[in-house]
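Appendix B. Chain record.
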Amino acid sequence: MTLKDAKVGQTFQVKKLTGEGPVKRRIMDMGITKGAEVYVRKVAPLGDPVEVTVRGYELSLRRADAEMIEIL
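Structure tokens predicted for this chain:
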């Protein structure tokens, strides 16, 4: 399951990042790394962006980026 498929109001743990290169680096720079807890706050009606809270920070992710984050 990826972060794109996550339900609003739930907390998940990051299992793995599947992106590569600059995209993976950008996701990691946001604090989204293996083992981090991610709370899904809001998803726009068309699914882009996905708003999450990670390590106390509120972030907006593109749907394409959210697809690269595997969660438990």
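Further analysis of this model is presented in Appendix C.
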